Amino acid sequence: MDSVFVFDHPLIQHKISLLRDKNTNTKEFRELVSEIAMLMGYEVTRNMPLKEVEIETPVGIAKTKVISGKKLGIVPILRAGLGMVDGMLRLLPMAKVGHIGLYRDPETLEPVEYYCKLPVDVEEREIVVLDPMLATGGSASAAIQFIKNRGVGSIKLMCLIAAKAGIERIRKDHPDVEIYCAAVDEVLNDHAYIVPGLGDAGDRLFGTK
């Protein structure tokens, strides 16, 4: 089964177009990222297991369903992943949130973990890693591996825009991880930015350069 899911919902596609626009300001950009994350989260959680329960309504007993099985955890990759957290929490207010920070070693060019704080029961949770841009895939792959090293067996990756190179990197390094994205772009430029992409997601979220 293909492990890559590209969203074609009209609302998501419309909001991605606004997100790409260089004239979209910081406030609007931040709101759009949060809104898209919430819309994507609806599908990312589609296969969560259910169990049947009995609920007493004002007029009788209803046999209905509630979520069962593994609880959810959300782990944004700092810093741009933070922009997707609020949207996910609006949908899943009881989810626990971890954080992971990486930097690239200037000599080896390999990702190095500088911060990782995960829920204490992380190995019992299904984890959704949040990263708006999947470019080379190096940072996302490293973050997933760092999380796996802490005993997590169920991980999904959610991003807004993915380059084909990043998708292939995750498929190669982590064939068990499903990738969810709203758009797939063809190429990277010499600075490893996705083209046409939307620029630097962290800078556009937080108004920095």
From TrEMBL:
EC class: transferase
Catalytic activity: UMP + diphosphate = 5-phospho-alpha-D-ribose 1-diphosphate + uracil
EC number annotated for this UniProt entry: 2.4.2.9
Every Phosphoribosyltransferase domain range: 6-208
Keyword Transferase included in the entry's annotation: yes
InterPro entries membership: PRTase-like (IPR029057), PRTase_dom (IPR000836), Upp_B (IPR034332), UPRT (IPR005765), UPRTase/APRTase (IPR050054)
GO MF annotations in UniProt: GTP binding; magnesium ion binding; uracil phosphoribosyltransferase activity
Pathway membership, UniProt: Pyrimidine metabolism; UMP biosynthesis via salvage pathway; UMP from uracil: step 1/1
UniProt record, GO biological process: UMP salvage; uracil salvage
Gene Ontology CC: cytoplasm
Entry binding sites for 5-phospho-alpha-D-ribose 1-diphosphate: 79, 104, 131-139, 200
SUPFAM superfamilies, A to Z: PRTase-like
Residues annotated as binding uracil: 194, 199-201
Stated regulation of activity: Allosterically activated by GTP.
PANTHER family on file: ADENINE PHOSPHORIBOSYLTRANSFERASE, URACIL PHOSPHORIBOSYLTRANSFERASE, CHLOROPLASTIC
Record HAMAP family: Upp_B (MF_01218_B)
Its biological purpose: Catalyzes the conversion of uracil and 5-phospho-alpha-D-ribose 1-diphosphate (PRPP) to UMP and diphosphate.
Protein name, as recorded: Uracil phosphoribosyltransferase
Organism annotation: Ruminiclostridium hungatei (Clostridium hungatei)
Gene name per UniProt: upp
